[in-house]
Amino acid sequence: MNGDPAVPKRKSMLVISVPKSGTVFMNTMFRKGLSLQNYIASNQYFPDDQINLDVMPAFGKGGHYATAHINLVDDTHRLTGKI
Q1: Of 72, 70, 73, 82, whose CA–CA distance to 23 is shortest?
Q2: Which tens digits make up the pLDDT trace of 36-75?
């Protein structure tokens, strides 16, 4: 639930991974182990996914875990450095 006010105020985590690298397993283990809410932080385009900047302010407030298959290109690297 993106932006759920009931989410605890623990720092959010954004994990960038490659397909077939255990993304679903990591998602489950981190969310359950750290009590974080699942969050969609990307536009979910394949194969060139992009960070959805519109949802980043809510994500940055904490309590969320997101995974994405984002290519590390100059623009993505520049944007993730600002999050």
Answers
A1: 70
A2: 888 888 888 776 778 888 988 999 898 899 888 776 666 6
Residue 18 structure tokens: 């490659």
The two beta strands, 13-16 and 64-68, are parallel
Sort 52 into a burial class: Cβ within 10 Å, 0-12 / 13-18 / 19+.
middle
Look up tokens 């255990």; give the residue. Answer: 22
Listed residue (29, 13, 31) closest to 68, CA to CA: 13
Structure tokens at 33: 């182990």
Burial pattern 9-25, b for ≥16 Cβ within 10 A else e, equals eeebbbebeeeeeebee
| 27 to 2, 31, 56: CA distances (angstroms) | 16, 6, 18
